[in-house]
Amino acid sequence: MFARSVLRAGRILTNPARSVARTVSASPALLTPLPAASRWSRAYASAATPVSPTDPKLGHAQSLLEYGTRALEEGDLPRAKAAYEESISVMPTSGAWFNLGVVEYQLAGPLGAIEAWKQSIALEPSADAYTNLGSAYMMCKPPQTAEAIKALTAAMEIAPEDPEIQFNLAAVLESTDQLDTALTLYRKALSGGVERALANIRNIGGKILAKRLSDEQKPEDKEDK
After folding, report:
1. Which of 62, 106, 143, 179 is most buried (CB neighbours < 10 A)?
2. Domain containing 162 — which CATH number?
3. Which pTM does this prediction carry?
4. DSSP state, residue 124
């Protein structure tokens, strides 16, 4: 299992190096199984900073962001989407794009979400946006594992000690048979408190042992021939 069951929290333009509005409860659709079953993206942003009295445009954009987030909390995805799109039309912010990605993910799947999270990152890179981007790439058909690895690696560069990101990256690496690196990351995730990593460590340890035994037998097979 991947480490998250909700979409990761994000941040707005004026508000991780990590000043994020973490763990606001949401009800996103669960992701369907991947090689290790994925449910691991993160929640949504809210305007944590006060509305700017000197910039009415930004203030209006933030008010629309908050309105959209209330609609998202109430489960009204079309109203949330409309509010985020209007906020972006007034003044694009990382948070509005991030939240639009959350809504797009639930309404239409990963492709629209990918574009929204890319826009969020372009304005203000965050580990949470990169994590969600990695999730969306893995939900594409077929999964875009190379892009997912790039996104999760970027997330780790911002938040190198985040055990959930370590776990998620390890799961994608395991699916591409990069077993030794995946094992190292699973161990870090376990030490960081992701207890489910223990099962993955045991499983991947067996895979590594089987691969080594197979590699050792190959020279003998050639000699027999």
Report:
1. 62
2. 1.25.40.10
3. 0.78
4. S
